[in-house]
From TrEMBL, chains A, B:
PANTHER family tied to this protein: ALPHA-GLUCURONIDASE A (PTHR39207)
Domain of life, per lineage: Bacteria
EC code: 3.2.1.131
Alphabetized UniProt keyword annotations: Carbohydrate metabolism, Glycosidase, Hydrolase, Polysaccharide degradation, Signal, Xylan degradation
Protein name in UniProt: Xylan alpha-1,2-glucuronidase
Recorded family membership: Belongs to the glycosyl hydrolase 67 family.
Reaction(s) catalysed (UniProt annotation): Hydrolysis of (1->2)-alpha-D-(4-O-methyl)glucuronosyl links in the main chain of hardwood xylans
Amino acid sequence: MTYIKKTFFKSILLFFVVCWSSSAQKDYKLWLQYNKVDNDNLKTEYLSNIKEIVSLGKSETSQIAFTELQSALDEMLGKKFENKSITTGDHNIIIGSKESLAPEIQKEIGNFDQINDEGFIIKSISIKNKKQLVITGKTDIGVLYGVYSFLRLMQTNKSIQNLNITDAPKTNIRILNHWDNLDRTVERGYAGFSLWNWQKLPDFIDQRYIDYARANASIGINGTVLTNVNANALILTPQYLEKVEALSNVFRPYGIKVYLTARFSAPIEIGGLKTADPKDAQVINWWKNKAKEIYKRIPDFGGFLVKANSEGQPGPQNYNRDHVDGANMLADAVAPFGGVIMWRAFVYSEHDANDRAKQAYAEFVPYDGKFKDNVIVQVKNGAIDFQPREPFHPMFGAMPKTPLMMEFQITQEYLGFSTHLVFLPKLFQEVLESDTYQKGKGTTVAKVIDGSLNKTKLTGIAGVSNIGNDLNWTGHPFAQANWYGFGRLAWNPYLDSETIADEWLRCTFSNDENFIKPVKQMMMQSREAVVNYMTPLGLHHIMDTGHHYGPGPWVSNLSRPEWNPVYYHKADKNGIGFDRSKTGTNATAQYAPEVEKMFDNLETCPEKDLLWFHHVSWDYKLKNGQTLWNGLALKYQEGVNQVAAMQNIWNKTQKYVDEERFKEVQMLLEIQHKEAKWWRDACLLYFQQYSKKELPLGVEKPTQSLDYFKSLKFPFAPGN
Amino acid sequence: MTYIKKTFFKSILLFFVVCWSSSAQKDYKLWLQYNKVDNDNLKTEYLSNIKEIVSLGKSETSQIAFTELQSALDEMLGKKFENKSITTGDHNIIIGSKESLAPEIQKEIGNFDQINDEGFIIKSISIKNKKQLVITGKTDIGVLYGVYSFLRLMQTNKSIQNLNITDAPKTNIRILNHWDNLDRTVERGYAGFSLWNWQKLPDFIDQRYIDYARANASIGINGTVLTNVNANALILTPQYLEKVEALSNVFRPYGIKVYLTARFSAPIEIGGLKTADPKDAQVINWWKNKAKEIYKRIPDFGGFLVKANSEGQPGPQNYNRDHVDGANMLADAVAPFGGVIMWRAFVYSEHDANDRAKQAYAEFVPYDGKFKDNVIVQVKNGAIDFQPREPFHPMFGAMPKTPLMMEFQITQEYLGFSTHLVFLPKLFQEVLESDTYQKGKGTTVAKVIDGSLNKTKLTGIAGVSNIGNDLNWTGHPFAQANWYGFGRLAWNPYLDSETIADEWLRCTFSNDENFIKPVKQMMMQSREAVVNYMTPLGLHHIMDTGHHYGPGPWVSNLSRPEWNPVYYHKADKNGIGFDRSKTGTNATAQYAPEVEKMFDNLETCPEKDLLWFHHVSWDYKLKNGQTLWNGLALKYQEGVNQVAAMQNIWNKTQKYVDEERFKEVQMLLEIQHKEAKWWRDACLLYFQQYSKKELPLGVEKPTQSLDYFKSLKFPFAPGN
């Protein structure tokens, strides 16, 4: 063992000893590597189609668009273009917003109405028989998005001839939720600590703030909530607002608005009031003035994200008011300035142990149509809490008169932290494609989110950030793909996750097909792998207490019933699973009839959701003919095998990847494989106590006892 | 204001928008930039003197030495040398330990006895009329140190012809103390959070661990205490020792030993014993077995650093035993394996409010000669606590039969965190040069520390680390110089701080004299500046409560008298200062007679230490003819002016420094200037209440009221 470790380290040393000057950087540069184009034909095509750059805008955003284009082309083609203010000759790239374009060019571009204010058009045109490539939009931000989109073509080695691309984001608010505390710890953060260095702000602007804005702009993210939903009211005091203002000044030219979390009891804590009752005149006034104060500093402040009456957070119910009272009161405060209130639907009562999955729907659906126009209700993708797999949240489609925004979790609270490689866009896509049937077949969650289903004006997608101050931003090099993929899906919820994986790999590593093909496959199967080795067949929330790292199906001693894994798997001698069908809690009734019927019936319920909706006997026959017990055990084994397969794929990529990132991923996959076995052994040993059955052939014998697994403690697990 | 800010940000944006690919890296590379040699003559000299590299060693350390040399020469000279195993032709660089050298080469090198095991010899020799440059030592680590020393010659553009350099460290233990907690917060850490990612260890080896080891090896640091002196016993459990072992495997080839802090009550907390009494057989046995367990994993484990019976930490006194009992018990446990115990002398009683400055001496000096051979007592540079200026600690020289090691604080707990530019080697040098007179004139602190005074076998210097996971390691680019300077002084306590500044600047930024001269001057005056604007004329410990950031001379409400600034400055209508002379606490009696006399007498007491030793009337005439009040006020003003002068110097360096580091330092100096004024105004307004005198001419009027300064709160100040 020790010997193995020694040689293992030796090999690392030989690789890493002096490579910091290049590699550390690669990790940091995310998907904006702008690798040299080494395909000569392609390079020739690119150079022959780019003679000059003509940048017409004058704003900071326009300057960013030009410098981005200039430096990217310099890195990819080894040619540094100057900024020509007037067009001479042909094959220029002309970048500028609609009104900056000469009339004859505008005419060639055609109809700008097909895009919204953030959209762009990339079009090869011919003016006086001279070919030109125009990147334009209605606004400078649109142009910037267009530039990043154009550069992505080159990063992925696509042709740039005869382009005619029209694209625009399908949602208004594409936003990161940072669960960052003022002490720089990050709730559920696994990539170091908060980027926001409050002590040195406002006067010290860390380069990372700019790099962060740049990375987000490159994928179309246009908002960021700087602070934790479990909010501290101090962020709303002048001492901190001055710092927030400084960040907003950095982000603004990149098209990113700053938002804050509002602690509902702030009027008491920092306002000196006796109450935070949303109907109290002083409280209403306090919030109005607070909004004025903020908008005086930050004219384009986005608004507030609120977690109220959830998990002990204060809220309107403390004053016998309801969510509508609370949200609308805040909405009135920010409305004069164009601000929005993102009100979270993640609530579950301390007094109702019946079925936590039903409570958000039960509490919110009756409010449909009662919220002000600038309120949007933020709903997690599933009814419980960011599990490896959950059926789509029944609220989607159930509140036709209320804007609902999606809340995805990019950070992997329940999916192995930043240690496990899990490509989340596959999960996101599964949710967005789910058919709610709320207006008949084909009314997918995506159509609810982008507003097309109910003609909703205010739309959005939020992602709980996985970003920290680790050198590589996200802890795991492949977790960068989850940040990237979230941004791309927020821009277009109909994108295919495989396309996203392909884009990201090419931009981040290499365009070599021998690398792309297998590694893309590895990414695409990674999400099913984690479901299999953690929570197969619809199991959920059986992670260990608090930190949620590793298995804890045996946990049953927590004060609130719905905090205990046993509440969710309900394993007993008869079987396993949570009966949410008619015979159980009837949570299925919260879905549209077609979906309700499908989930309700053991025969039609997809096996991937089986134990989510049904308590099933150990001997129940699965579609593959296996008993439930054997099928469950084989699923756990399959998850372990899938991770082994991922390792085999990655171990063959050495010649396509820099030493450091290759080693990093290799080490992390090794840990993931070890921990997949841990999950398999701990869960099967525990459930076996109830099934009283042998492990089927093909499932490896556990190497440790159940007591050993129960004894494992992680006192300083991050993000907890 | 807002407008100014806007344009300020604009300028930043234009600079930084796309430069991450190069600049972030420069910050990260510390003093190992290996900039291209652009002086052609020099480059020619270097190339003509380096034809080949012949590396004779086979160990990991030898491989590191070669690859370091190879990559550095590649970066500096643009030529990639191969590793020749045999010497052909002339002008080779031959690197290898003594026994790896051919006899005729050994003969040419001469006497190896002039160096110790970590020393090196760099010598230009001639073998069969062929010139060769040999870098050798008794061990491979010595050779590695030699390689770094040789590369430093080139980094600082020195000639490499006819070299004959013999160098060896003057202390055994050159060690960093990381006050890192297991949750990755760092006590008194201002550069982000702990480098040690305990969750991903042992199987994930962060590149930073290797880069950290490399940076330390390049300046001769050979030990690191991974954990906080306010220790958590969990670090001694197998779960964590496995992780510590992984780190030790990374650090070993760089000549760095791992040490841990031992919580004295660990036998109770993790051993299940009822007591931690150092005379208890079970306790003695528990520590013996714990040592065995550790050394089984880490054969070269360095030993334990212990903070006992200090600031609430457990220790032998809890069992009516003394420091000797505690230290020797642990010493016995690690002695069989060659381990050492570093026992801290930083103690002050909760029950003796008389004079905290006297207590460590009073408690420890009686134990002189009573500690086991493998115990070394770690003494802070001054008798209070890492102030901007303190007289040298009276314990130095007062325990001739006991090894004493120095504890410097590299992290700037009381010196403006990582926001203020303060070149600490100037402070360190001042302490090391102080004459204790314990064996007559010239018995400096340095001679105590390097063991030459009392022929001490075990010697060492510890530095409380300023390293965190910030991209630039230390928060402030110039704080890197304090890490560097600490290492250089630990190697040779007689080095001049100006030489260190010169080396560091050349290695880190540029060799251009137009840059070096003024910036070196800026560094050299920076320490006196902070003394002036924070605690001039011997004032001390008047920082605000807990976080120690900013002024708090008014604080008087803390539970223990010696925690309150008023305890230290004792300002009243008669004057200001702590009377530690015969007429006061008689702390001066703890020094040798010559020093005692000097400090005791108001006339001979250096004015820089005046208020440390004397309570002086506001009208007292200073040597410059000013009254104490006017002189004090003018000192505060001088500090502010000195920071302004530092800004003027830095603002002229733009053309010698990369954009990012230039801007970083510029922004930080701006904050430092603002905060120097804050210190001046707050302290003078406060003291003015007692002096009842006007501010003299030349001192700017305060812009805020004393109440305003008192009202400032820093709820989430880092490191607290």
